[in-house]
Amino acid sequence: MVPADADANELIRRRREKLEALRRAGLDPFGARYPVSDWAGRLRERWEGATADELKGAGPVTLAGRIRAVRHHGKACFASLQDYTGAIQLYARADLLGREYELFTALDVGDFVGVTGQLFRTRTGELTVEVKAWGFLAKSLRPLPEKWHGLKDVETRYRQRYVDLLVNPEVREVFRLRSRLVQATREFLDARGFLEVETPMMQPLPGGAAARPFVTSSHALDLELYLRIAPELYLKRLVVGGFDRVYEINRNFRNEGISTEHNPEFTMLEFYQAYADYRDLMELTEELIVHLARTLLGGTTLRYQGREIDLAPPWPRVGYLEGLARALETSRDEIEDPEAVRILAARRGIEPPPEAPWARVVKELFEAAVEPTLIRPTFVIDFPLDLSPLAKRKRDAPHLVERFELFIAEKEIANAYSELNDPSEQAERFRAQAALRAAGDEEAHRVDEDFLRALEYGMPPTAGEGIGIDRLTMLFADQASIRDVIRVPLLRPQPPGA
């Protein structure tokens, strides 16, 4: 861990003294640009197996980075320099650097330098840069956590992610994987004719999900606004406008609880495909997840929290009500009976308010009895209508809708449906949601008159889907908490003096 406060303060004091010494020596402790032409990791990849003669012929190299270790050997000094590609050893000699050698040996772990030198291999075989010239680029005034203990305190890791990234290489790898996942997702959708777009983050009406929004305002317009809970209604407006395949990867904001699977600010992929339905998106989703697995992991098997999960398709499809009936060892008829389902819920300790509709009771039962069993990739399909105010009815079962959720390792990864494109029915559903809001349901949808007007111009049969980028990263990076895949998770403020 970082040294105790008294020791840490003493180390900071010494570093500030070195800062002033650098200035007295005429050096800028927070220097300017440096002409970097080489990177540590790439040098190691390129020259790791090279002979001594080949290294001599490589010519001078120039790189910059943070000092991670310093070892003194009389008139020589070894150091480790780290940049964003990796680390490489430096070797400095007093007879080669002259007066500059003294300053080099005064470097602290955490300082930034630029060096130019010649590659060679030490007697132990370590690829090394012999420093011919160097420049001071930035002074580190705070000591990094100790090498062998690192930064372990979870709260500190999240609050000071910059230090977490510095000292825990496995954390850097998680965020590299996240970036590669987003890049591979874009490549997959672009190759299939989808157009990446951006829709408003601040909206006059929040819509597209059942969630409580964050409220803000525009002073210029004297207008109350909401941080978006989903981009859905704006993306569907683009489909109305003639963009048949669109997607967005961006932030959503929901003013609700924080847990290992929920953060109020999170990243979603949302996409819409005209002339398709939810069955088409099940196939597309299988293809996308398998593509990501092969790109990131080299195969279709991943390990998550000690479990090995096979992602090879086809994935099972389980009816929402059938799956619940099977888990409770009862009949679907009993599940569809409002009184019977309340009795089933009570047996599991679930007691929704007396005024809670049947669909809410069923939802709570499903979350408790079925979701924990969904380990391998599974599409849960055909949801109750009352849980899906924006989805199209099933023609052969109008009390259900054409909707699926994808579960992997007990986590909901994706939510999709055939979009309701009948403006009259959508208006009726909005009115029903408005009645729920009036009765106290703060997460019920508002009536969006402009969206209804857009539907009246005509929206083709369309399927849409949202995939949580954070949860998907958790799976591929084998991380148990969403905070471990979000660079800056939301936390309570620290008390004064903490």
Outline:
The chain has helices at 5-24, 40-47, 52-56, 94-97, 99-105, 154-159, 161-167, 169-191, 232-240, 278-297, 320-327, 332-335, 338-347, 358-369, 423-438, 449-456, 469-477, and strands at 60-73, 76-83, 86-93, 112-121, 127-138, 195-196, 202-203, 215-218, 223-227, 245-253, 265-274, 301-304, 307-310, 317-319, 378-384, 393-394, 397-408, 411-418, 462-468. It is α+β, with helices and mostly antiparallel strands. The strands form 4 sheets. Strands 6, 10, 11, 14, 15, 16, 17, 18 and 19 form a 9-stranded mixed beta sheet that branches. It has a 5-stranded mixed beta barrel with strand order 1-2-3-5-4.
Describe the structure.
There is one protein chain. By secondary structure, this protein is α+β, with helices and mostly antiparallel strands. It has 2 domains: 5-149, Nucleic acid-binding proteins (OB fold (Dihydrolipoamide Acetyltransferase, E2P), Beta Barrel); 166-316 and 376-484, BirA Bifunctional Protein, domain 2. The protein is 35% helix and 26% strand. Strands 6, 10, 11, 14, 15, 16, 17, 18 and 19 form a 9-stranded mixed sheet that branches. Strands 1-2-3-5-4 form a 5-stranded mixed beta barrel. It has a 3-stranded antiparallel sheet with strand order 7-9-8, with no helix packed on it. The two termini are 16 Å apart.
Overview features:
single chain; 498 residues; alpha+beta; OB fold (Dihydrolipoamide Acetyltransferase, E2P); BirA Bifunctional Protein, domain 2; 2 domains; five-stranded mixed beta barrel; 35% helix; elongated
